Amino acid sequence: MSEIGLLPDQLSNCVWTTDQAGNQKTAFQTYKRFGCFAHIFNTVLKHALKEDFLLREAHEMDACIAAVKAAIKYLKKSGQAARLDNALHPFFAPRFNSLYRTFKSAYDQREQVVELLLKSGNSRLQLF
Hints:
This protein folds into two domains: 2-35, no CATH class; 50-126, no CATH class. It has 128 residues and is mostly helical.
């Protein structure tokens, strides 16, 4: 900490923001610490978007999420995603905003995505 100008006796005057990992909590247990909002939000989303919960409570949402993920995966794997104006963002679970970015990237280009899927004759379009 001395590299950034904090002396050991000044560390208790700081409020630290960390993820929710046990080692972080332990390392900062003697200091004021807040959990990182992005990490907490990610944990909430992980639980809310668990496949078994969605299948039980919101099967339409589960089908929509699966269709968008499958369409993006197909377009990327087939090389057709390169024909889009902007990149498609695949779902990456550890990122709290990944599902949002995935849906936004597909939604913002929905006409192009649908056109590519139609031309390919891919059945994933029925759900998209």
